[in-house]
Fold Large ribosomal subunit protein uL22.
Amino acid sequence: MPTNDAPVLPGARASARHVRLSPTKARRVINLVRGLPAKEALTVLQFAPQSASEPVYKVLASAIANAENNEQLDPDALLVSEAFVDEGPTLKRFRPRAQGRAYRIRKRTCHITIGVVAIAAATPRPKAKPAAKKAEEETE
């Protein structure tokens, strides 16, 4: 039986369950931050116009705090590795309509889960000198 020998990166997760928000609307916001550095993702969520960005922001901040306090990881070196939204239970209500009818209202909920991993701090590369300018100066 094959085994998974992939290296496990240190990280943390956070989740919010039974959030009173449509899963499709939450997924729209989650797709904005997946794969971003954690601090940059917080900034994106802070200025996102969708109302779903507030609970997603709180879950991401909680995941960063979990990594910092439980795993002793540097919050500046964190990357949003996994972010997904699952459908929660649906509350069913009725809206009275004309002539004795009733329409069903579905108040949807969702479970938001975000995971962050620590990445090695990238060393800044030295600036490459433009070779084209040097060649032009030598020919003149």
Q: What stands out?
A: Strands lie at 11-19, 78-87, 91-96, 102-107, 110-118. The chain has one domain: 11-121. The domain at 11-121 is CATH 3.90.470.10 (Ribosomal Protein L22; Chain A).
